[in-house]
Amino acid sequence: MSAGAETAPVFPKLNAEEEPDLGATEIESMCMNCHENGTTRLLLTQIPFYKEVVLMSFCCDHCGFQNNEIQPGGEMAPKGIRISVKIDTMKDLNRRVVKSDYSSVRIEELDFDIPAQSQKGEVTTVEGIIDRVVRGLEQDQPVRRIQHPEAAEQIDAFVEKLKELKEMKQPFRITIEDISGNSFVENPLAPQPDPNTTVSHFIRSKDQNHSLGVFTHEEVDGENPKQPKIIPEEEDKMLKMISEGSWPLEELHGEVLQFQTNCPECAADCETNMKVTNIPHFKEVVIMATVCDNCGLRTNEVKPGGGIEEKGVKIEVTVRGKIDFSRDVLKSESCDLHIRELECEVGAGALGGRFTTIEGLLTAIRDQLVDSTGMFMDSNDEATKHRMDNFFGQLDAAIAGNKPMTIVLDDPTGNSYVQSLNDDGTPDEALRIIKYHRSYDQNEELGLNDMKTENYGEEDDAKQEK
Q: What is the average pLDDT score of the chain?
């Protein structure tokens, strides 16, 4: 391969128009039903607005047995996810669901649980989850009716209750909990928020990390940790602590640091530039920019230079037209964004942390939603397509400066900022800043409830003395 040849990404995007040949791999493998040879197809792809996945499909030409599975192909999510959805219409049964091996499913009204790792990961629907449970329960019923007629009768009664759920005689709630964080339930009202869905994240326990194969260095090394291999300084490309006094902060502000990374799109080697800068009337921030020479990807990200503020901040800015487009905006990774007139909510992790302008923020929202709605767009009904076209029409009018709107940034860490257009210190009528005390749940999400910043060494000293 020539030096200038472009390397194909390992996980191409799931878009049939742009990627007509996604390059599925076929492997001859044994059928677990008739023990003859069938064909397994593997496809490495990237689901828009989700992550990298490995799709597996098996088909046996001898007995007709088929099986489909999905495995996460990207990195493990830092937290587990819990998704609770209220199903109250027939359309809700068609919600698409991405479920991993580590997902447990609970149907509240029937007090029924599907334990984690009892089923393989799959791309399915809410109705598909119910159908799979019904097939599993009915599989051994003929034998069970002969050997254990009472148990078979109870199972038949429970299967009837499951089938009644699909008739929507009454609403029910289904909860998916995944310690790997790799599950997803479609929002049919996107980009508007879904009132029937509650999504929360939780920190995994030690046992849950072990079941995922995640261990700390101390757990792996045991009592006799291995000494790290000494690498010559000229060959060591890892970031190191700057020794005290060797680099004054004044020089660090004017210096652009570089370190080696991998491109998030094509996984090729590239460089990330990092610079510490000061935002007037706010604080120091760290700006990081990555440019990939292989696929042309350009990303920028911003991190707050300080810690979490004492109070959260809610910023409301009225965008009257192009006069407000030039406002500088710092959106942290923990900041939720809401556009009132469009009833559009963008979660904290969707856009990441970035330093941009109002115009750049609106453009980024549009680009993100275009990528996200590419998932399952070919199977959406006409009403959904009409709603999305209407939404993008209003968003384009706002980007062109023809539609006023109110953008609300809610950051519980207090590390977000919107520039005021009045440099003389007088109040900006189009900008409203509210500081508030975080709730217990917000502190729990940020890991602050268990954080001890005073006298944290006393307990350890007392244990050593005992």
A: 78
